[in-house]
Design goal:
This protein is α+β, with helices and mostly antiparallel strands. It has helices spanning about 30-35, 40, 50-55, 90-100; strands spanning about 55-65, 70-80, 105-110, 115-120, 125. This is YkgJ family cysteine cluster protein.
Length: about 130
């Protein structure tokens, strides 16, 4: 759950316009929402079980890394946004591995306030 300044929505909080299955203001949503892409919707290789509300992980293409003070630039971010179940862990790990293998963008895993860069180099964890 991302921060959306235009809606005064902080990160980690469900948007007040969420109906639980869709956006209640979709036709009039702010540009930050309209320009954002959920990679589960865009990449056919991500199976149905990795839909964010089912897997608890949201994969997105972000314009800057989720680490304070990081350089701006496109990256893949997998955010834990819900409760993940043990039977999904293999699929989640496979999705991260797919993005790392593709290799053209940095890949980050975010869980709460912790962001871990998996690619390039898997160089540790930062606290945001």
């Amino acid at each position: 759950m991302l921060e959306i300044a235009a809606l005064e929505k902080p990160a980690g909080v469900t948007c007040r316009h969420s109906t639980g299955t869709a956006c209640g203001i979709y036709p009039a949503r702010p540009s930050a929402c309209a320009q954002w892409d959920c990679l589960w919707l865009k990449i056919p290789a991500l199976p149905d079980r990795l839909r964010p509300d089912r897997s608890g992980v949201l994969f997105s293409l972000d314009l800057r890394a989720p680490e304070a003070g990081s350089v701006e630039g496109a990256c893949i971010v997998g955010r834990v946004v819900g409760r993940t179940r043990p039977e999904q862990e293999r699929s989640i790990a496979a999705a991260f591995a797919m993005f790392v293998r593709e290799g053209s963008l940095p890949v980050w895993q975010v869980d709460g306030r912790y962001a871990t860069r998996l690619h390039p180099g898997g160089e540790g964890t930062a606290r945001g």
